[in-house]
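Lab notebook, bench 4. Still working through the backlog of constructs that have no structural model yet. Next entry is a single chain of 361 residues. Request: give me the structure tokens for it.
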Amino acid sequence: MSESRLKQLQDAGVSIWLDDLSRSRISQLPALIEDGVTGVTTNPTIFAAAFKDMSVYGDLLDQVKGQPTADVIRALMSADVRDACRVFAPVFESTNGYDGRVSIEVEPGLAHDAQATIAQAAELAAQVGEPNVLIKIPATIEGLAAVRATIAAGISVNVTLIFSLERYRGVMDAYLNGLDDALAAGRDISKIHSVASFFVSRVDTEVDKRLAAIGTPEALALAGKAAVANARAAFGEYLSVFESARFRALQAQGANEQRPLWASTGTKNPDYPDTIYVADLVASPCVNTMPEATLQAFADHGQVVGDTITPEIMSARAVLGELSTVGLDYSAVTNFLETDGVAKFEASWNDLVLAVEGALS
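Model written out:
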């Protein structure tokens, strides 16, 4: 990999995280850190792929045989995340907790059960047992309550599956409310960190399909514009909240900003540049979590031309307005994507169950 392009991205204020983890991947992490990777994200789909090869989990499987399958899965995931956290510990320490983070997600079947999510978030944090773990909680309505309670408990959180600006505002509010609750409980809020994972490429996939169905020249001219516009508009929401008097008061007591994280940044449409969801979403203090192919593509030919978000916030909002003008119901799109996202992770969880049960049989 070329270090220079990734270094330019870092210098522009973007933290580079890898959207992948497996037992075999852990040994590769030091080299990736040398190339500029400063964190890792996981989800049920990533672990479903990792668990297709259960041969590398032999010793761990022997330790957990006889336990319920869901408990075995959490033990295996936690072991991988724990090992990755330890590899990233020097990054975590040198950046005072800003980077060096590894995420692990609660079971997707709990997405609409706040109390069960709160309980499992605490369980996963304890099971991993490393200070640089982030617990991923989906940004469903019920998930917002779980985010607040988990932050209040002093556990750092990656809020995932965010698609709409309205829900993003709710995510940021849940974070700030959680910090208020943590302060009231006497916690050191300087140790609490959070990122808000705004999904990108999936937006273009769904919006482009609906624009094609509308079929007018005006609609077709908007193809490939919605995802970046949505993320840029989200950054505008981020600025309004974390430059507010409310956050400044919390910051004076040690609070950290909840950073925007761009997820689903692999390009799904081959007609679009393979680095579009990286190059067009550069601003400080963002995180971009990339699948390996996107990371390699950007290292090879990505272009960093400075901040590509902040100067475009107003035009991004205009693009979202144009979608409505041509007859596209954007709220219907984001509602669908949230529901579909949870369903896809549930399907991946079922694949995990089958893989583990097969290994244990």
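Notes after review: The longest strand covers residues 133-138. The mean pLDDT is 96. Flag for follow-up if needed.
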